[in-house]
Structure formats: C-alpha cells, structure tokens
Amino acid sequence: MTASPLTTASTPANAVDLTGLARLITFYLPQFHPVPENDAWWGKGFTEWTNVARARPVFPGHYQPHIPADLGFYDLRLPEARLAQANLARHYGLEGFCYWHYWFEGRRLLERPFNEVRASGQPDFPFCLAWANESWSRRWLGEARDVMLAQTYSPADDLNHIRWLMLAFTDPRYIRFNGRPVFLVYRPKDLPDPQRTTDTWRAECVRQGLPEPFLLATNAHCSDTDCRRLGFDATLGFKPELGVLPRFMDDGLRLGKLRRNLKLGVLSARLKLYSYAAAQRAMMAIRRPHPLLPCVLVGWDNTPRRGRNAIVVTNSDPAVFETILRDTIQTVQAQPPQERVVFVNAWNEWAEGNHLEPDQRFGHRFLEAVWRANHSPGAEATPAEDGQRPGL
C-alpha cells in the first residue's frame, strides 16, 4: 500500500466524524466585495462579479455569462451571504472552505470576509488557508507582466507571517490533519529559501506551544516537484493542469486549433476550446513518482477575464465530474479516516467558470454530484432536506 502523504510519526491520529467517504475541502475565493486596491486598478466598485456579468459568448452555443442561482450576486461583506454559503456546502457534505489568503509582507488584500468569519465565530463551518503567493497583475494567469502589486519575501516576514497565521490556527474551526493545522502555499518554488521558511514556521509554532503546522504545497507551477524536498509535508496535485491542453497559452491562429475546434462544432482557428470530458480525463491521467494529495476540478472557462483569449473547457457535465470525483475518493479509501482528504477546485471561482455554487444552467447538479460521489451506493441519491432549504 502506498503511504499517505499525510502520515506522520510524531502525531497520533484523531478520530474524524466523516459524513461521507472522504474529507472534501473546497477552495474559496474572497474577491466578491469592493476594496480600495481594486477600485484603483479596475474601477470604482469592482468585484469578481464585474467580470462575470460582462462576459459574452465567443462562439455559438457558448455558455456565458454564468449567472448565479440560489445565492445571487452576493456581497461577502454580508454575514448572511457567508452563512448561506456555509449552509449550502455543509448540506452537500463538504467538510470546509480553503480560503485564498493574500499576504504581501504584512499587507493583506481581500481580507475582510475571513477577518469577520474569524472574529465573529460565524459561520460555524471548518476552514483553512491557502497563501496565493504570486504578484497581482493585469493578466489574470499569474504571469509577471503588468504587475500591480509585487509579491516579495524576507526572513523577518516569515516570522511575522506565521505569527499572524497562528491567530487562525488556534480557531477551533481550523481544519487539521492528524491534529496539525493545515496551511497551503500556492507557489512554493517562488520562496527564496523554502526550507528556511518552513523551518521558521514550524519552530515558531512549537515555541508558542502549538502543534507544527501541516505545510502543503501545490504543484500548480512546479508540476513534477516533490515538495517534500523543499521542506513541505506534502504536495497537492492541484487542478487544473492546463499544461495537458494543446497550445493552451497560444493566442494565435493555428491549423491544429481549427481541427480540434471543428470537432467541437466551432469554426475557429484562434479560440482555445477543449472538451470537458477529454480535458478532465487528461488531467486525471497524469501520474507522478511521489505521493500527492488529490484535487478535482469542477470546470474551466476564464472568458470573463480574458475574452477571446480565454481557455474554454466546453460542455461541462456534472455526470463526468461525479465519476472523476468518485474515482478520486476511492484512491484514498485505504487510508485512515483523518487522511482521506480530497480537495475540490473550486467553490466560487465564477470568473473561471469553476464553481460548485449553483448557477442558472445546472442548479444544484454539481453539488448533488458531490454528495453522490462521496457516499456509498446504498445511500440516498441526494441529501435529505432538514426543513430549511440551504441558501439565502
């Protein structure tokens, strides 16, 4: 049996009350409220909904814009909106949210929703944090072009950062792996000295009487790297792995694009279109020689951000998603309950066409797929209503 990347010899496993076959944790974007930085960079009142609402189809039959259903165009400054999200996620068996965390040498962005969740104790729903440690640019794909706010690092900041993080780690809702608070880093190789940083974080937590954090690095920008060699406890096999998609960064006219797009019923030699089923299976087929925590993608279409230069995975299908999620959940069943962890990307990446939250086309079908995939065949096809429909 392959060892779990979560296994540690120093901490005993604590029982986890699983309502399903695995612990499902979904990434959560907080950019659904205005902040001064976005006002300055993108225009007064900008939120992620600005991009979402102005999206238009770029080929016949293209599903854009994605319009929210149950939760509407919410504002994350409202506690009612945050509670409605948590109720919906809990209803369909998700364990918690992994909030994207933006830290620039002590300066935080989009911090208000998480600040209020932590300070108020509501919603009473588990969470962890993932540091999106990349510069903010106008390109929306993490390239170092047109940088608006650069990501920088220093030894002093390593210490300041972990001291701030400990405020979150001590929250009783914080998600733990074998008793250790889990913290994710999106671009581990961007750290000037990742071993120094991770050593600093662990040592400071222990000095303050806390367990060592479980440090999880994504391989989003270092696809073949075993991040244990950088000082992390494990590597997350982050999705999407766009590199499996032919010419995914090429915005020019290409005969190969024309051939592929014609198979999807679209006459274009420029658009970057890919079949949902084929793209999902190609991403899931990648194997690495080192252990990975699994991650499953909901969908992808970043037309709201990039227009005709977007990467569009067409014909999203809850049934295909359900099959991939179920198969992924099966891969962790040999592990102890604490270690049956699967990340789902994403809860609410609306401008990437990547969301479990209900929209006008699919309603609850992706959430229902989550429930079915994470329960034994004899379980109810959908969760029983508790007398109150989740949502606003």
Molecular structure report:
This protein has helices spanning 36-42, 48-54, 79-91, 112-120, 155-169, 194-207, 255-263, 276-285, 303-306, 318-330, 365-373; strands at 23-28, 96-104, 107-109, 127-131, 136-137, 147-149, 176-177, 180-185, 214-218, 234-236, 272-275, 295-297, 311-314, 341-345, 348-349, 354-355. By secondary structure, the protein is an alpha/beta fold. The chain has a single domain (23-246, 291-305, 316-373), classed as Alpha-Beta Barrel (TIM Barrel). The strands form four sheets. Strands 1, 2, 3, 4, 7, 8, 9, 10, 12 and 14 form a ten-stranded mixed β-sheet that branches. Strands 5-6 form a two-stranded antiparallel ribbon. A two-stranded parallel sheet has the order 11-13. Strand 15 (348-349) and strand 16 (354-355) form a beta hairpin. Helix 5 (155-169) crosses helix 6 and helix 10 (318-330) packs parallel to helix 11. The longest helix is centred in the middle third of the chain and has 15 residues, at 155-169.
- Separation of the first and last Cα atoms: 45 Å
Number of helices: 11
The helix/strand series, from N terminus to C terminus, equals EHHHEEHEEEHEEHEEHEHEHEHEEEH
Number of domains: 1
Beta-strand content bin: 15-25%
Strands, count: 16
The quaternary organization reads as single chain
- Shape descriptor reads globular
What fold name stands as the CATH topology?
Answer: TIM Barrel
Backbone CA Rg: 20 Å
So, CATH architecture? Alpha-Beta Barrel
Structural class: alpha/beta
How would you name the CATH homologous superfamily? Glycosidases
Please state the average pLDDT score. Answer: 92
Fraction in helix: 25-40%
Low-confidence stretches: 8-17, 387-392
Briefly, what CATH class? Alpha Beta
Q: How would you sum up the major sheet?
A: 10 strands, mixed
